[in-house]
Amino acid sequence: MGDKPTVQSLTMLAPYAADPLRTRGRRFSEPPPAYRNEYQRDRDRVVHSAGFRRLEYKTQVFVNHEGDLFRTRLTHSIEVAQIGRAIARTLRLNEDLTEAIALAHDLGHTPFGHAGQGALNECMREFGGFEHNLQSLRVVDVLEERYAEFEGLNLTFEAREGILKHCSLKSARELGELGERFLNPRQPGLEAQLANLADEIAYNNHDIDDGLRSGLITVDELRDVDLFAEHFREVRKSYPALSERRSIHEVVRRMINRQVVDLTETSRAQLLTAALTDSDAARTLTEPLISFSAPMWQQNLVLKQFLRKHLYQHYRVCRMTAKAEQVIRRLFDAFFGQPRLLPPEAAQKARKYEAAGGETGRARAIADYIAGMTDRYAIGEYQRLFDPSQLA
Ligand code: MG
Fold first, then answer.
1. Ligand 1 center to residue 33 CA distance, Å?
2. In this structure, what are the phi and psi dihedrals at residue 317, rounded to the nearest 5 degrees?
3. What is the pTM of this model?
4. How far apart are CA 99 and CA 195, in angstroms?
5. Which residues of the chain form CATH 1.10.3210.10?
6. Which of 191, 244, 257, 381 is the most buried (most CB within 10 A)?
C-alpha cells in the first residue's frame, strides 16, 4: 500500500497499535480508499449498513416501546464507541479500529436482547445453535447485501477479529484464521480488548441509570454496591439540594469516569511493562493487557451481580422475557413448518440454503431472518401471523 504517510500515521500511534497500512487485509481484496485509512473505511461501512440502522429498534434490557429515554442497542453501541475512542486516544491505540469494532459489536443481536438470543439458540439446537457474536460476524461477512463485488461489508481482519468476541469451539474450527485464538487460547489485538471492556463499562453503567429511571431498582437497594454508594454519598454531600434524578446522572458519570481512568492507568502500566514492538505481539499472549485493576474487577463484579439479581431477574423483566421467548419460538416454528409464510426475500433465502444444506440450511435462513428483526417488527410479524383480526 506504499509508504506515503496518511493522516492516521502522523497522529503518533504507539508501536503496538493496529496500523492500517499493515492490516492483514480483507477477504476480497479491494483498492485502498483514497482519503481514508482502512479502519475508517470499516467504520464507515458499518455506519451505512442496514444492520446498524436496525439497532435503533432493538432492546438492550427494556423493550423498545417501553419508553423513549431507555437505551437501545444503537445508543448503547454509540456509548461503547465513545468510551473506546477516548481510551484508545489516550493509550495511542487505533481509534478508528476501536470505533469500528464498537459500532459493529452488537449487529448480530436478536430482537428482545438476551431473551431473544436464548430462545433462538434453543430453536436452533438441532441445527448448529445460535451465537450472537458469531451472528454479528455473519452480518458483516455475509448478510449485508450492499456491494456489487462481494457479500457482506468485507471488513478488515482486525475489525472482524474484534467483532467475534466469543465463539464455541465447534464454530472456531470452521472459521480458519479468525477461529484460531479460541482453539489455542490467545488474546485478540489491543483494540479488540479495549472495545470489549468499553462494552462492559457502557452497559453496567447505563443499566443502572435505566434501571433507576424505570423504578425497577432503587437507590436504597444500591447501598451495597460500593462503586455507586461511594459516589452517591459524595454527590449528596456536595449538592444536598440537587434532585434525585440529577444526582443519579452525576453519580453515573462519576462511575464511568472512575472505570475509564482505572482501565486507562492499569492498561498503560501493563503496556509499558510488556513493551510490545508491534500489534501482533499482543496476539501471542494468553492474558489481556487492556484491563481493569484487581480492585476494580472486584467492584465491577459486585455491580454485575447486583444488576443480575435486581434488574435482569426482576419479575417485570422476567415477564417481558417470557413473552419475548414465546414470540421468537412461535415465529420460528411457524416459518420452519411452513416456509411459505415467509416474505419473498426470506423465502428465497430459505430455498437456497435448503437446497445446499437441507433442513439445517432452512433453519439457518429462518434464524437469520428472525435475528435481523427489530423488536417492533417481531411483534408485528407475530400479530400478523397469529392474531386473526390482523391483516396478513
Ligand atoms: Mg454490547
1. 29
2. -70, -40
3. 0.94
4. 8
5. 7-316
6. 191
